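Need tokens for this chain, all 387 residues.
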Amino acid sequence: MAVAAVAALLSFVVVAAPARAQLGQVETAGRQMIVMDHDTGAVIYEKNADDLMHPSSMSKLMTVYVVFRMLAEGKLHMDDAFPVSEKAWRMQGSKMFVHVGDRVKVADLLRGVIVQSGNDACIVLAEGIAGSEEAFAELLNAEGRRIGLTHSTFRNASGWPDPQHLTTARDLARLARHLIGDFPQYYSLFAEKEFTYGIDVTSKKPITQGNRNPLLYKDIGADGLKTGHTEEAGYGLTASAKRGNRRLILVINGLKSMNERSRESERLLELAFSQFDNIRLFSAGAKVDEADVWLGSLARLPLMIDRDLMMTVPRMNKGSVKVVVSYDNPIPAPIAKGTPVATLKVTSEDRILAELPLTAGADVQQLGFTGRIGAAISYLLWGAGKQ
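Here are the structure tokens for all 387 residues:
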């Protein structure tokens, strides 16, 4: 077994961590919290991130995810309109103020959910897509399982209090990551600061409501996603912010007031941006190393990486990362291009931070009989590099 350090990387002094181990430590007033890097999936901070909690209106993100996916697949269109049932019209809590019997476009309903947090808009979408809110909840659960929300159970479309309507901070962060990454064509809806729909029956004026996400009104790069609040859950926020090429995702819940939610969310994002950064170790398609070949038409085989390898690292208190490539040496021919032939490991202090296959960068034919005899003699005398 050959083990080769990748010399080009020895100048990097970084620390990285597996996705389930947080990189830093921070205190927070939230009962549950997680800060995740969008690109690497690294968890920077967390607190009780796997505890079941009531997500309140933050679970509307799952409803939005289902609608976005149907739009992307052409099963739904922004101009499609759904009727407003009496159930939707009578729904309490935050409202878009739809009227029973009206038909409302999907484009307006989405803004009613995202900007205005309308429980009524959620029910209109649920009934229009699945026939009933109960059937739509089954769809939410199926989609949640598909994208890896392993601890979430959705009982309704809006996050209306239900003892079995539960999720975790980690699952909400995963959901936010999917919303941003899977549907960039629709994500800008989360940055809209106000939406006007309907007419106030008393003043006869249009009803304009502002986005409840407090971070949109601060100059910190925030551009989504969703607030939540119930008496039992407290005040919560699933948020994302981007600075330069870095995007962070924050989920926090169980705070005591809107002001505390605003201050604590901003503080955690500021800390994560200032204390951590991303570093690209390899780009997809790069040659990482070369391996000796046994009895092949090539003496040396390029070892390729088929994906980007990026790490979230602390800017201070850095440690050394070791990058090694391991494979059976020499690799016997024939070898088909794209075949996994080696393993790249990134480690720090005996911890494996990343482990992924490297593939053959070329087709290598096996030498004929005469060539194999000559190559074998050459290998015995000079090693693989002299075939």
